[in-house]
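User: Can you help me understand a structure? I only have the sequence.
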Amino acid sequence: MHDIIIIGSGPAGMTAGIYAARRGMKALIIGKELGGQIIWASEIENYPGFNLISNFDLINKMQEQVQSLGVDIKTNEVKKIKPSYAKAAEGKVDKFILWTDKDKFEAKTIILAIGLLPRRLNIPGERKFIGKGVSYCANCDGPFYKDKIVAVAGGGNSALDAAEVLSKIAKKVYLIHRRKEFRAFKVLINKVKVRNNIEFVLDSEIKEIIGDSMSAQGKLKKIKVFNNKTNKKSELAVDGLFIEIGRIANTDLAADLAERDKYGQIIVNEKCQTSLPGMFAAGDATQVPFKQITIACGQAAIAALAAYQYIQLKQV
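Assistant: Let's start by predicting it. Here is the structure, written out as tokens:
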């Protein structure tokens, strides 16, 4: 029996593990992929204490700290969570039972730190050049493209916000949208329209991402674009491509357990408690409006401390 099981091994999951261990809790972290969404970012410039740190260096430092505190980390996927009720009539959760492909675990509390998945274009070259020119976060990777040429794919709020942010950094920004009209807020559209270095490429879709496969770095070099109205094919030379077509809340695991909003995000209170007592959530999978590493870590610290408090009060 664990005091707490943390599902997700990204920054939120690691932070929760640190705080749980420091409260003397028997903790276990289970995650599909060490690092979580950090693996989609190449280098990080907005994490306190580091002017610049690579994604792998940051997650390795977190892993070392967590394991030095005695927290076990398992690379696996939790397939099912089932609350066990000591007094079913009263609806009081006694413990949680979790299953992976091979193992079964029990815990007094759970923290869901399962993050979001970026929507992908699913085109040739996309996976190959992730972190080598392809990015899903303008706030994270935008500063690396100072005075360079970049493209943004998308037509919603996140895409136009990314284009506006990048226009202050890059020399030129192509804003590529498959329709003629944007779906973003009017205020964002107006901001983008007055930027002289943003060029609209409308009624168009990116069909392929091409890079220099001969070099060791294999950097993105250009993208192939198809105009849906004219059927014309073209190529744009770019240094970076920011895919901003939304994110998917990876919360199906909690679908029947915790309350979610219309976007599939897990709803939590100020203590990061979900609607199911004993189950907490932290990071991008919650309804927090800003999806950033430091915010996810802050929520995870709250969730771990609240879980500790929950156990203590339950024992009284």
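Now, to help you interpret it: The mean pLDDT is 91. Residues 203 and 228 are 5 Å apart (CA to CA). Let me know which part you'd like to focus on.
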